[in-house]
């Protein structure tokens, strides 16, 4: 099934990441509006959202990522899933309110891993939903793992699998900042413009100098993992990845416009970061 764009809603973009299980209503509304605009223009969209302040705290407390060795009863797995599916319900409800025919799809039922790496990924259900005009909404989740018993599957890994299966024209990562900066922005200090282009070579190596940080409760790898995921998508799918602020005008354009009315491979878009494979212009 054709897909025009895979959209990743960062957990920090749609939740108050340092406040337990708290949605950012204004940023979630901006995200749903941007996707609704694309869907109304006839675009085929798949959405993946991170957990933010839902799930990460429970996953860290019970060390769910490390599996049955630490979460011996599986209670952490269950509690983390309660939290992330609570957010999924809120996100899907917001999309439906914005007149988007969104349907939640839990990766827990689609994925198995071996020592944290993908083993079996079943995306036919996503394809069938797309064929019938729905917008599938997936998320970071807890999944069964053949080595650990179970583990954490990040939303970025979900995005990579979707891009590998459906070969979208681009992926768009929506965050709480305007893109990727040369070094972590300091509070109350203007960080200046984000890096306009991040180049990735054919081996997936990032060729642009970046310094990153990670929140204490983020069990999925923080900003560095997000950039590496974008690099993998750019390499494997030969598709550009746009990283933009969720409530920015460029986010809306990046999701809806197939050609962006700009060559995002060679000409930097204002107010965002584009990750692309070296030697490509699309």
Describe the structure.
It is a single chain. The protein is of the alpha/beta class. 33% of the residues lie in helices and 20% in strands. It has helices at 11-14, 25-40, 56-62, 75-97, 124-131, 155-166, 222-236, 249-256; strands spanning 5-9, 45-49, 102-104, 111-114, 117-121, 135-139, 141-145, 149-153, 170-175, 197-200, 241-245, 273-277. It has an eight-stranded mixed β-sheet with strand order 3-6-2-1-9-11-12-10, sandwiched between helices. A hairpin with a 3-residue loop joins β7 and β8 (149-153).
Quick overview of this protein structure:
By secondary structure, the protein is α/β, with parallel strands linked by helices. It is built from eight helices and twelve strands.
User: Which bin fits the share of residues in helices?
Assistant: 25-40%
Annotation field: number of helices: 8
Whole-number radius of gyration?
18 Å
Mean pLDDT, nearest integer? 88
Order of helices and strands: EHHEHHEEEHEEEHEEHEHE
The description of the largest β-sheet is: 8 strands, mixed
Widest sheet: strand ordering: 3-6-2-1-9-11-12-10
**Outline:** globular
The beta-strand count equals 12
């Amino acid at each position: 099934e054709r897909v025009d764009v895979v959209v990743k809603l960062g957990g920090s973009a749609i939740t108050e990441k340092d406040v337990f299980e708290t949605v950012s209503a204004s940023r979630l509304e901006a995200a749903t509006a941007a996707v609704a605009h694309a869907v109304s223009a006839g675009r085929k969209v798949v959405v993946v959202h991170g957990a933010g302040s839902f799930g990460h705290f429970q996953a860290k407390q019970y060390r769910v990522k490390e599996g049955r060795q630490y979460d011996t009863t599986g209670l952490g797995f269950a509690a983390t899933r309660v939290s992330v599916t609570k957010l999924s319900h809120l996100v899907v409800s917001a999309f439906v309110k914005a007149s988007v025919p969104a349907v939640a799809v839990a990766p827990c039922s689609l994925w198995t891993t071996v020592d944290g790496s993908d083993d079996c990924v079943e995306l036919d259900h996503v394809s069938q939903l797309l064929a019938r005009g729905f917008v599938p909404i997936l998320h970071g989740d807890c999944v069964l793992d053949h080595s650990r018993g179970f583990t954490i599957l990040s939303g970025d890994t979900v995005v990579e699998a979707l891009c590998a299966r459906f070969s979208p024209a681009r992926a768009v990562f929506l965050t709480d900042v305007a893109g990727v900066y040369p070094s972590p922005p300091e509070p109350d200090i203007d960080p200046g413009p984000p890096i306009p282009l991040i180049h990735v070579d054919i081996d997936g190596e990032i060729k642009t100098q970046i310094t990153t940080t990670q929140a204490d409760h983020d069990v999925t790898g923080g900003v560095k993992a997000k950039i590496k995921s974008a690099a993998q998508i750019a390499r494997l799918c030969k598709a550009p990845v746009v990283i933009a602020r969720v409530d920015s005008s460029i986010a809306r354009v990046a999701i809806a416009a197939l050609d962006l009315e700009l060559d995002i491979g060679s000409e930097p878009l204002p107010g965002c970061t584009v990750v692309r494979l070296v030697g490509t212009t699309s």
